Sequence to fold (429 residues):
Amino acid sequence: MHPIWHPYTVQKSDLKEVHIAKAQSEFLYDIDGNSYIDAIASWWTSIHGHNHPFIVEAIVNQLQSLDHTILAGFVHTPAQRLAEKLIEFTDNHFYKVFYSDNGSCAVEVAIKIAIQHFKNQNINKTKIIHFSSSYHGDTIGAMSVGGDSAFNENFRTLFFDSPVFDAPDCYSCSWSSDKKRCKNECLEKLKFYFQREHNSIAAIILEPLIFGASGMKMYKEQVLLDLRTLCDKYNILLILDEVFTGFGRTGEKFAFMKAKIEPDIIAIAKGLTGGILPFAATLVTKKVYDPFYSDDVSKAFLHGHTMTGNPLASAAAIASIELFEKENRLAMVCELEKEYREFGQILEKKFPEKVKNIRFLGSVFAFELNQSASYLTNLSRAIFQNSLENGVILRPLGSTIYLTPPYTIQKNSLHKIFETILKLNCFCD
Ligand SMILES: *Cc1c(COP(=O)(O)O)cnc(C)c1O
Fold:
């Protein structure tokens, strides 16, 4: 047996891993030379396609001069340039950039900053609120603000206490059957809770517009607008986890821009380096940062990760943002949306009884198979195998089949993904 312990993987199984040897654009190639279209952009990261020469070159160039240095008491140009670029790329809404290495850590940092923001002002606000469909990562703090799932179950005793509210879900709404008459009833309970408990609440954290890992559950912008208003009213920080939604996924650079709201803190990771190197950041506004500006060490944010601000990852992220703007990725996402609209209609017409909740936003397309299936049943595994045999990588979340391809995917590759879905065994009687 090989010593690699694979993530999210049943250990005793006959299934063999796909051994990947190389990648280019939207394609992964295994050691036997078979190609696969990466319809999920390798866990939603590879926004420009794999091995983009512009990013590869930026990393190689950086490696000629500086590999790594600590970021406490030291600084280097790539980390500086990237922070400036990120502030600019988020329309100068934020003031400071705190680096880390992955989405979970970016979320932990956001939570700790929110807590200390109030502590530094001697305000006793310590609660973090979350929604039931949330996913913020697999570290203990991130799991504490994550929704119920089989993944978290074994560790519940370690979580910090975080009040949870039923998540909005506009394609499977449990409050109102008539979309047109929706008055955001999904926020009613939360409103009452804020009214009663706001003195003890530091922040609310959520994924803007799409709850990704819990099954691409989408909700409308008005929910975020209402949350912003509520948070303003009660001096509660609004933390948006843009780890998945950031860098164009929803059709705008960031989901908060799509909803036209101003969050206090955002966490970013997945698309940050174009999916090439591990990297993450937490961005905060001046208001959030100000209480940390002090010569008193007890007011400093005493947190850091060894590889924080790594020059190679910074160089990759700078190149990725440059590409994003230079090659107009948002226009490509807009094209994807048009394709999704057409494909959604075909899917609906062909399998009216077998699929439900067909939806899309930006580069994300999703629907449910009309049968109950948890993440842990064989259905998603079967679809994965079935699509793989057709040269496409799909990795359903339970009964939710979804697409999050690189924005640069060619039309014929996208159409091959569509055909593969239409031919899936689960649609054949
Ligand atoms: C993937 C994800 C995370 C966790 O990021 P990692 O890099 O896997 O730690 C956090 N939040 C959201 C919304 C994510 O999609």
User: Anything to note?
Assistant: The longest strand covers residues 355-361.
